[in-house]
Design a protein that fits this description.
Layout: H1 2-19, H2 37-67, H3 83-99, H4 105-112, H5 114-128, H6 137-164, H7 171-193, H8 195-232, H9 241-257, H10 260-268
């Protein structure tokens, strides 16, 4: 009789557990089961793309998702969930959060991180590429493709920041920095949950950057030329510092943006 009652209780508990809604999880990146190729490709490209914008934010998000059990990353990326790695990435993220919002400092930070973001993004992409069923070549493919994607996004960020720094107000720096951080978290979330959407948007983004980078480079060259003329200008005579500074400033703006008056006269009289 006692055994019969225990059986009824076990049946009731199992029915209750069956009625409970399943715990939501992100896509399951476990190499013990076959991953879909698109999932692997999206994770590989997403890690590389995000690293070119903010490597520490990318490490933090993937590490937190892995450590909290919301996603099972490939073996070489599971180290991102290590508390020491996350603590280090968090400290560097806070440092970049403030450095990235100071005009001039952000450009210096981007130059320094040319040697950090690109190798970091390439290594993360190589780790994610373990899910591709092509043998040892997968990591090499991830290393090459990931390095290229990271270099492209890093160049776009560094170039756009150099152009933004020609603006005298700091609001544009803050806006760009916050938008970049938000895009990293949103982009990785899309790569993990909607891989096809992310891959399509990334292709569009890369095509846009291929069109934009030459223009950014020309603008940066003009800014550097204008800055060099400013510092090479001779010292003004005593008592004329104010007028000389205004003249040098106007010449610098003309170098960067062109002389609007001359441009308008040229439009009126093409000959």
């Amino acid at each position: 009789m006692l055994q019969f009652g225990a059986a009824i209780a076990d049946t009731g508990r199992s029915r209750t557990e069956d009625c409970q809604p399943p715990r939501p999880r992100l896509r399951h990146y476990d190499l013990t089961s076959k991953m879909e190729s698109i999932d692997t490709i999206a994770l590989m490209l997403g890690a590389a793309w995000a690293s070119g914008i903010n490597l520490y934010a990318a490490i933090l998000m993937l590490g937190w998702l892995s450590g909290s059990g919301q996603v099972d990353l490939p073996p070489d990326l599971q180290i991102l969930g290590n508390p020491v790695v996350m603590l280090t990435a968090g400290g560097m993220y806070l440092l970049e959060f403030f450095a990235d919002k100071i005009p001039g400092v952000d450009t210096g930070w981007d130059i320094l991180h040319t040697f950090i973001r690109i190798p970091g993004g390439a290594l993360m992409a190589a780790g994610a590429a373990q899910g591709l069923d092509i043998g040892p070549a997968a990591e090499l493919v991830g290393l090459l493709v990931g390095g290229g994607v990271t270099a492209t996004t890093h160049a776009a960020k560094a170039g756009s920041r150099a152009v933004i720094n020609t603006s005298p107000e700091p609001v544009s720096n803050w806006t760009a920095s916050v938008a970049e951080d938000v895009s990293v978290f949103a982009g990785l979330w899309a790569a993990l949950n909607h891989p096809w959407v992310f891959v399509v948007l990334l292709v569009v983004f890369l095509l846009f950057i291929a069109w934009l980078l030459p223009k950014l480079w020309r603008t940066v060259k003009r800014a550097l030329h204008a800055a060099s003329r400013w510092f090479r200008a001779p010292e003004p005579p005593p008592g004329t510092a104010g007028n000389a500074t205004q003249t040098r400033r106007q010449a610098m703006l003309n170098d960067m943006y062109g002389n609007d008056d001359a441009h308008n006269e040229h439009k009126k009289d093409p000959a």
